[in-house]
From TrEMBL:
Superkingdom of origin organism: Eukaryota
Gene3D superfamilies, per database record: Methyltransferase, alpha-helical capping domain, Vaccinia Virus protein VP39
InterPro entries associated with the record: MeTrfase_7, MeTrfase_capping, SAM-dependent_MTases_sf
Protein name as catalogued: Loganic acid O-methyltransferase-like
SUPFAM superfamilies membership: S-adenosyl-L-methionine-dependent methyltransferases (SSF53335)
Length: 351
């Protein structure tokens, strides 16, 4: 089965990701201080082979501007590390690799590159679930709000004879336990592939920072904000099916390919891989956006997926309905408990 490619809306138009990714940007901003702390305290420059280049990769970069904020902070922090150790005369040149699926709008990304950047920019199309770079070539890897996407929809979700057939729903939080287990198993497989590939590519002593939408330990998946909003989206689709705009069969065959793991599950996956040590692991509490803003955020990353499955005709009405449901529901959502992401800073072990 071909791997899913889920590009965000490209360009710079009204619904584009570049104009509607403030929710994700907040996660990048909150991670900045933790990345700086990790580089200052944990990055040992003496472990790296002598080189005049320091190589950084952002995996799942999309179209900007959030990726530029993240990589510039890493460059600034590494430069500060060199200077604090009296190595200002040995400052390396920086090469930054921007990675996403080939269907990503790289034209938008490269036309908006910061003109005063202090790094050489390179685009790397391809799936981050597989190898993208030569062995032991990267010093620092960053990925924010990307690794939660599943590489494929588990086939049992679409099998009418399976206990995991997800009839009438588009996600797992309020579905049968078999549905959630299917999502969970696929996430485990994908993260192991992701970590295995990075273990080959990152130098011993190199680092990787991940920001993942997640589910706090002990919190039901149905109370996670992103899961709640996906449930609302499913209800909007059912409303449209009742009015004959789309068919229920179309809904039954659509599943949102994202799993928001618990903190405990993420830690277990890292430990199982064994190639990285967890240096920092902290929750990032995010503010609750307004209904209109969050509807726009969701449209920026879900529209291509929905358009491919249901067609473009339903998009405006669907997201208008979603905004209305947000307005009716947001007052009862507890933002502190349900709107949390997880920051993990890993270091490549010398194995």
């Amino acid at each position: 089965m071909a791997e899913l490619a889920i590009p965000m809306i490209g360009g710079s138009g009204l619904h584009s990701y570049s104009r509607n990714s403030t929710f994700q940007r907040k996660g990048v901003e909150l991670a900045t201080e933790l990345i700086n702390k990790g580089i200052a305290e944990k990055l040992d420059l003496s472990k790296f082979p002598s080189s005049n280049a320091f190589r950084v990769a952002d995996l799942g970069c999309s179209v900007g501007p959030n990726t530029f904020l993240a990589v510039q902070n890493i460059v600034d922090s590494v430069e500060l590390k060199y200077k604090s150790q009296g190595l200002a005369d040995l400052l390396p040149e920086f090469q930054v690799f921007f990675n996403d699926h080939a269907s990503n709008d790289f034209n938008q990304l490269f036309t908006t590159l910061p003109p005063e950047r202090r790094y050489y920019a390179t685009g790397v199309p391809g799936s981050f679930h597989d190898r993208l770079f030569p062995a032991s070539s990267l010093h620092f890897v960053h990925s924010s709000f990307a690794a939660q996407w599943l590489s494929i929809i588990p086939k049992e979700l679409l099998d009418k004879t399976s206990p995991a057939w997800n009839k009438g729903r588009i996600h797992y939080p309020n579905s049968a336990i078999e549905v959630r287990k299917s999502y969970e198993a696929q996430f485990y497989k994908d993260m192991q592939r992701f970590l295995h590939a990075r273990a080959h590519e990152i130098l011993h002593g190199g680092m990787m920072a991940l920001v993942l939408p997640a589910c706090p330990n002990g919190t039901p998946h149905s109370r996670v904000l992103l899961n709640k909003t996906t449930e609302l989206l499913g209800l909007c689709l059912l409303d449209m099916a009742k009015r004959g705009i789309i068919s229920e069969e179309k809904i039954d065959s659509f599943n949102h390919p994202q799993y928001n793991a618990t903190f405990e599950q993420v830690e277990e996956i890292m430990d199982r891989n064994g190639c990285f040590s967890i240096e920092i692991m902290e929750a990032l509490p995010l503010e609750k956006p307004s209904p209109m803003a969050f509807s726009s955020v969701l449209r920026a990353f879900l529209e291509p997926l929905i358009e491919k499955h249901f067609g473009p005709e339903i998009l405006d009405e669907l997201f208008d309905l979603l905004c209305k449901r947000f307005e009716d529901s947001f007052s009862i959502i507890d933002p502190e408990e349900t709107n949390v992401s997880l920051f993990v800073l890993l270091q490549r072990k010398a194995i």
